[in-house]
Amino acid sequence: MKTIHVEGRLLLLLVFILSACNSPDGDVVTPDQTNNVTPSAPTDAPTEIPFQATIAVIGPEEIVYDWSYDACDPEDIPDLPARAFRDADGQVHLIAAHIRSRASVGPDLNHLTHQCDILMNSDHDGDPSHFNDNEWIAAPYTEDGETVYAIVHNEYHGWEHKNCDSETVDFSCWYNNLTLAVSHDGGKTFEDAAPPPEHFVAGLPYPYEAGAGPYGTLEPSNILKAKDDFYYQVTRVDDYNSDDQWLCLNRTDNLADPTSWRAWDGQGFNMQYVSPYEQPDADPTQHLCKPLSPEETGLMSQSLTYNTTLDRYVLLGISADSINGREVWGIYYSFSEDLIHWTHRQLLWERELSWTYQPGDEQPIGYPTLIDPDSPSMSFDTIDDQVYLYYTKFNQGSPLDRDLVRVPVEFFDTQAEAQAADTRTKLDLQPATVTDGNVSISGRLTTIYGTPLADKTVDLLATQNEGVGDYFEYQLSGKIPADATRAILGYRNHIECDCTDADSEFWLYNMSFKMGESEDNLVPNPTFANGLSGSNLWNGGDLAQVESSDRDNGSMLHVRAEAGQTSAGDLASFSVTGGETYAATFGARVPPASKGTGFFVLVFLGDSGELVRYPITFYSPALPVGNVETGEDGNFEIASSVPVENSSLQAVFSGDERYLSSRITATLP
Fold first, then answer.
1. Long-range contacts of 416-420 (CB under 8 A, 24+ apart)
2. Given 2.60.40.10, 1.10.238.10, 3.40.109.10, 3.90.180.10, which CATH number is that of 425-465+622-665?
3. pLDDT, tens digit, for every residue of 175-229?
4. Cis amide prior to 214 (ω within 30 degrees)
5. Which CATH code for domain 5-421?
6. What is the pTM of this model?
7. Is 397 left (phi over 0), alpha (psi -120 to 50) or beta?
């Protein structure tokens, strides 16, 4: 069997472990988005497919779902690719699911309102043979707007059910399958299409085994109705007790029957998925699909559509490829006439991902998919030459803070046409020079294809790598939960988090909390003029001391917890109004060495206690130290007196109405 080996898988799993450990429940796991693809030698002669087209990004990024304002609870996050369908009344439903699936609904994809009603909740069934544990609505499909079928991404977490050597997140106890759900009310609610485990759609022919994971079938594409009137979808396979991975192409002619799906076996759609619990004696080799064009597709499984303009199927997703001798991660796409043979994947957009991100990079993204608002299909499985690319953006700060965004893209016959229309930018820098204590940064701003951009503002940002840190206003904003009556501002060092075990220190000068349009600060004692009056300190609270401010004539809170020590405090408590917008600020200085050792926190409470908390993990901020306008040739030069021996520098173009943002880290002497 042809497989793709994953050398960087452990790193990827660690990324998600950290995300889970920082979640409010401490045990939330998200479906993995892709893996470090290392192409293997082909076993079959490649099919020559000369057809190519080029996709360009032709407009600015738009926020579709803003977690800070739209989330109904902290775990209301876009955690799989967005999927859309129309109901019988013409209303559009957009789902980017998590373990409690919700939808944004409106007359079209340009006018949506996020709904807090839960479409489907996870059953958290501790029996792996039921395939009914943590459930994501992954691929809904309807043709009449009344009955909506949905492939469900199911994760069994052995550590949550005392069926693992560990009681905390352990990916070796992660078991994946696909099941079927159905809605009979136009997508307002979903339920299992049959009593578990009869709703089983696809999985590996191996039962759950603690320590053998992660393995199973996962992250299915959307469902596509092809020209032969069969329904297709692509799913990724992580092999049992192995690092091997591949894609399966599945099809059915009956969406209502979870047992009707068959996978491509190299000759036809003959491979049947079997439950290892219902057929324990089945020969596993007879129930594994033929990998789908692994050299060409590179494990892209997020989006499967039919382009009516090109008369081609389009597969799109996260992948990597070797380009000019460099491994390039990002969003790729491929074309096919028959869903079996695919062109070699083309890079659409090099982007930072959760496992490639470094501080100072552009925000990482994941879960890309193509959706055409003008598609005549009730389930948006067709596109034309102008569509939207949707993806999740992972914001830095709160671990769960991620938004669903989109950019307009267009298919072009030639690369020259695509280059002329593309709005993406890039910055190139020469190595920095230092003269008489001043650092000089010179570079050029162009489109990603090299066309110079004149009269654009480029900012220079500096981040301290050593020392006591810079003063910075760490901020949170969003909507107060409807049931909230009070809020708390506080801090944590080495406690209530998977924090770095190093010395943890900060100086806090002021706090503010403003609600609605009011400029009134609701925080009592915001600058510690009354010492620690109104504060509640515990677990090393004696490490918190009010001192004379080193910024003005007032006071500041100084907390230092050495490695192995903890300190925690709720510093202010005050009344709030549910449903109002808010802006919270911690004016503080955090040394670079304290990055990841603790966090500032905003907690909302209701009549029954804590509703939700929003942490801001300690980090060293990037602060502006200069800016300049680009010349006619896109060139620029910025000089600054920032000390380069303990700082890192970045040049940043923030974008404008036409062009997208870009940034680059300077090489310092």
1. 417/54, 417/56, 418/54, 418/55, 418/56, 419/56, 419/447, 419/449, 419/451
2. 2.60.40.10
3. 999 999 999 999 999 999 999 999 999 999 999 999 999 999 999 999 999 999 9
4. yes
5. 2.115.10
6. 0.88
7. left
